[in-house]
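Before a colleague's protein record goes any further, I have to sign it off. Alongside the sequence sits a line of tokens, each denoting a local backbone shape. I want your independent view on whether this chain really folds as the tokens say. Where you disagree with what is written, explain briefly why. This is what I was given:
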Amino acid sequence: MSAEKKVQSKDELRLKLDINNVFAEMIGEEHGMTVEELEEAKDRALTAHRNILEEEAEGKMGFMELPHNQREIVKELKETAEELKDKFDNFVVLGIGGSALGNIAVQTAINDPHYNLFEEARNGYPRLFVSDNVDPEGIKALLDKLDPKKTLFNVISKSGSTAETMSQFLLARKFVADAVGEDKVGEHFIATTSKDSGYLIEIAEREDMKKFFIPDNVGGRFSVLTPVGLLSAAMTGVDIEKLLEGAAYMDQICREADFWENPALVNGLIQYLAYKKGKVMSVMMPYSDRLRDVADWYRQLWAESLGKEVDRQGNTVNVGPTPIKALGATDQHSQAQLYMEGPFDKIITFLEVENFAEELEIPGAYEDLDGLGYLGGHSFAELINTEKWATELALNKRNRMNQTVKVPEVNEFTLGQLFYFFEFQTAVTGELLNINTFNQPGVELGKNYTYGIFGRDGYQTKKEEFDNSAEHKDDLIL
């Protein structure tokens, strides 16, 4: 049942970007691009590329440093995992957004789909839970299943004031303290936070917690390759050195100044031009269960980075493509109808796995039934990729813009490439949109209202704005 071919060299494991289906030759002149359009816009992309490299030299592109400057951190992370994995049965991440989505994506991609359910799937490592919401039922259900004496919590917050994360921390702290005593609380927590400021570093010092630090120049949605994502990966047996090797390999490609030799640069421009052509929705559709949560991670990366009210000069622009998650082949039966016949407002990015770890043959039976007998003798790996190719062709026939990122096989090296590829692509598209790709003022406003409503000092005006906001009319609540 296992696939026979195992590609191993770095070049064999290189991601490939197939952009044939964005061009008019495949999808028609009305909705397709031309190579000439890209050539005409190429200089803008190359300027964006130079700007990114210049900003990196000034220390403003922290995500680009991560594949190269964490040797000692990786060593400490691996040592920590080795020391603690036998002491705890459960490892619980308390985080939200960029402090959770990358962790989940790594776990889904690399470890057994039933990792938490079966001891043999964990190979001596603890179960992993990522608690990324403040739904009281979900939190209570998780804590009810955990033995506090055998549970290690990783609290992730750069500021230490993230309401969702820190409220869960306060509950988890009581959960642990009630079981082991106040003096041993710190042994059950690891803080991942800012090194020099914030409430969490102060708490970690008070409680004598183990600490890992988030670089100041790396935002949450770009932090999967920092201790934010690497600690939970190491605690579940993921080869974090290979993750960073993959990112470093893609970084080398992304530094290429030859436009057509730099797929992330090319695609950053394609995404920008597609947006300008009215393709304002960006669908990511992996044909792989292992990569399904990469699409969740991508949604935050794309939305928070590119959805902006103003440009760098302060002009109101209200830009940003809307990211959408789909899963092949599942969503052929839920979303594909819209993609085929709905508005021409989407660009679809498929993730295609070329070599699955398991082929899994479909048994032959009922050969006398035309609608069933044809399946026997083929494999599920063949079937899922055939369905992808069929969907791709159907989209082309409907003049729908699509492209494919080909993943030779899913492993730490290729996953590291994927993360870095989309991060760099995002930086390019942000440059072309002339926006600040790395802030999120819209998120901050909602946070500030929450602080005010809950009575946090310094946010009284937000509480007043809430109290004075228009009341909802009863007759409009149906």
Q: What stands out?
A: The chain has two domains: 10-55+242-433, 66-238. The mean pLDDT is 97.
